[in-house]
Amino acid sequence: MYKEYWLKTFDYKGISKVSELLTCVFINFIILALITLVGLFVPVSMENGVVNLYYIVLFIMILPTIAMIARVLNGKKR
Question: Is 47 within 8 Å of 72 (Cβ atoms)?
């Protein structure tokens, strides 16, 4: 399911379930939490790199999340 989340990044016309959306958002939260935990254990000189990685991953995760929200709303219309 999470692989489909990424593969359907630009699919705004399909249909998805709310449970799929919540599962993917939860997995994204876990990934971001792990990046944050890594930031606690890296040397201070590397903290900026971890923060930059966090923001890049967060930005990349926004695109498929918006597409999945659109697919969930499409499913509610039908």
Answer: no
Q: Which of 34, 38, 37, 25 shows the shortest CA–CA distance to 66? A: 25
pLDDT tens-digit series, residues 8-56: 999 999 999 999 999 999 999 999 999 999 999 999 889 999 999 999 9
End-to-end CA distance of the chain: 22
How far is residue 27's CA from residue 31's CA, in Å, rounded to a whole number?
A: 6
Domain ranges of the chain: 1-77
Token readout for 36 is 């944050």
The whole-model pTM stands at 0.87
